[in-house]
Amino acid sequence: MNRLEAMRILVAAVDAGSLSAASRQLRIPLATVSRRVSDLEEHLGVRLLLRGTRKLTPTDAGRDYVASCRRILEDLVEAERTATGEYRAPQGELIISAPLVVGRHHVVPVLVEFLQAYPKIRARIQLSDRVSNLLEEHVDAAVRLGKLPDSDIIATRIALISRVLCASPVYLASHGVPKEPNDLVSHECITYEGYSAADRWEFRSGQTSQWIQVASRLTVNSAEAAVIAAIADAGIARALSDQVAEPLKSGALVRLLEAFEPPPMPVSLVYPMQRHVPLKLRAFLDFATPRLRQRLGYESPKNS
């Protein structure tokens, strides 16, 4: 039995909540996952997991053993990084995740500049509006939009971005200009399956939030597609201010209900909490943070 492999599978199964979920995540057969866990239990002579119909539950012995496995696997990663020199000089591969538009317009140019400054570092960037799991997907750092949940990640704010309502002059000439959020129920809205409920839009009403259920004839899964559709007179879209800066400037889109816009949304550069931050990651964070703030027009607070 390869004990390290079995430990990795056990930890993945506990984190995923089931053997089948671990099988999908690790891309190995379910029978192999089950067999490796059973091999560990037989080797130790103790039950590690209670296999329910919906979820795995570690036994007391299993909980302690999984915690020990995590430390062993983390120590192994640290040893490998030390051996390859990641703590002596910035080198190795960086995996970065970012939303599509912010990533393409801002993160990619900064990353290219970073690679020119650090020739021993390679990089892979994942552009997607889906929120990646940093640990499971081995992502070194990510740009995240919106309020961050409590978790084992370190976050540095790099911007505040407004959520802007807009439509084309042609659409507004045909359908009228909404004066308040409730007017949207009689308009054709372009909804985006992104960071929140697609057809429930938040607005500011005094010091509180107001949520409006909008009518939609077109739903897209890309923020960029929503902007393109709005320019093509398809209706009213909601997008990030950075995504519509050029169409607003050119007059292709008109900003609507500005007085009712919700508070700006934070944009953060995040990375997993870890005992030792590799020099390649530390170099990227130090290099990218001020440049992304500058590109996104954010003046960092003191001591940030």
Describe the overall structure.
There is one protein chain. With 304 residues, this protein is α/β, with parallel strands linked by helices. It folds into 3 domains: 82 residues, Arc Repressor Mutant, subunit A (Orthogonal Bundle), CATH 1.10.10.10; 74 residues, Periplasmic binding protein-like II (D-Maltodextrin-Binding Protein, domain 2, 3-Layer(aba) Sandwich), CATH 3.40.190; 98 residues, D-Maltodextrin-Binding Protein, domain 2. It is built from 9 helices and 14 strands. The strands form 4 sheets. Strands 4-3-5-14-6 form a 5-stranded mixed beta sheet, covered by helices on one side. A 5-stranded mixed beta sheet has the order 11-8-12-7-13. Strand 1 and strand 2 form a beta hairpin. The N and C termini lie far apart (49 Å). The mean pLDDT is 88.
